[in-house]
Amino acid sequence: MSDRLLVILAFWATLSLLLPDTSFADDLMRVLLMQDSQRVEVSAERGVLVQMPYGDTRVFAGSVIARPSAGGLTLNGEWAPAESVTVRSRGGDLSVTNGGNGTGELKPLIVGGNLKILVRGNGLLLVNDVDLEEYIKGVVPAEMSPGWHPEALKAQAVVARTYALYQRLLNKSREYDLVATVQDQVYQGRQGLDQRVQEAVESTRGIAVAYQNAPIYAAFSSTAAGPTEDAVNVWSKDLPYLKGVDCPFDVNAPRYQWRAVLKVQDMENTFRRQGVDVGAIASLTPFAYSKAGRVTKLRILHSRGELILRGEDFRRLVGYSVIPSTQFDVESMGWEIAFSGRGSGHAVGLCQWGAKEMAEHGYPYTTILAYYFPGTELRRTSSLSR
Question: What pTM value is reported for the model?
């Protein structure tokens, strides 16, 4: 394996010399911060400007509080016949909070760029229009420890950038490109900006992983604990660059091995709360596996019949933090079921703990990315399909 990595290293070192010396600017991402909210408050050190869709601009010295209202919205209690407004800072970053009752509850968040408040249904949608590189600086420290090796941080920065560009292409017709949660990538805005992260982002500025002149679906997860997984086994997407590779690098990960014991009754209640029609569970048995050894299907026998679930759907229903991966064995213990497993996350694409170990052993981020995304190349974002 070391010989293969050395060959890859030489390849990427040569390729890096061939990359065009171009850059891009004003590349905006539309990031959904919250939806279905009944109250959004935005403030800035020197106040905010609210641009109305009909050209009027309103000035607020402190903060502005928006609420949905019939035929529009209210701004600090004053009704406005507008279904969308854009909020800009008069100086300093924007601070935003919501008032509850919405999906996507938001703690106080500091962001750059502008904010769009849109009335949708009976609630408000909040979207952050932010420069791509600033967005990446808010993603990397939320997805990887800033104290990790610089080459691992660079790999994460390129992966986050690539994923963002992929989603932007996919969601051109929508009102936002991606969501600021684990549904896409966790985005924490400008809070907790770290110099090490900023250096990793700046040193890889404008670089993405590409396949056939387009950004790839740059998946990543914490710990593979064995070979990474084929995307087709997780999302039914058969992508040539998301095929499983050996990953012997993450043995020091905290969730390389894990064990969870679930009460059968708690599992039944969890399923029912999410709309799954299940009776009293008699047994839970994995019966289909990927070539990497992860559960792709399992059978649940219960008093109302039989339930077949995909492995990842089972994790989603029970809770990703409860069952960290689909690489597990099952043991029935009467009124409880024990899961003994390995790894954390879906294991498709970049293994973060594997990237950490590779970086600590001297491999640059280019080699790390080439290893986990076979058949791809690094390209300047300005040269990719848009």
Answer: 0.90
